[in-house]
TrEMBL record:
Protein name, UniProt field: Transcriptional regulator
Top-level lineage group: Bacteria
Length: 89
């Protein structure tokens, strides 16, 4: 699973060909022992959870990079490696 961004201890990944379980464009997020899956179009949590502070940070990052995330999703859904996306600063 390629990590497409990392900031403030948060790792954001996107699996290639990961369309079976969630059926929506999404990212996988890890922070310490927490894991979550977040839909790209609307930022909805599909699975898991994060602490509130990290949840707010990832929501802001998704909002800022939604177009890049969707472009990466189309690459990953076709079996290609997604590009890195700038971290939240």
């Amino acid at each position: 699973m390629p990590t497409i961004s990392m900031f403030y201890g948060i790792l954001v990944s996107m699996y290639a060909l990961d369309i079976d379980k969630h059926h929506l464009p999404h990212i996988h997020v890890r922070y310490n022992e927490f894991k979550t899956v977040i839909a790209i179009p609307d930022g909805e949590v599909l699975e898991g959870r994060l602490p509130i502070r990290q949840s707010k940070l990832i929501q802001a990052w998704v909002e800022l990079h939604r177009d890049e995330l969707m472009a990466d999703w189309f690459l990953a859904a076709s079996g290609q490696t997604p590009f890195k996306i700038d971290p939240l600063r």
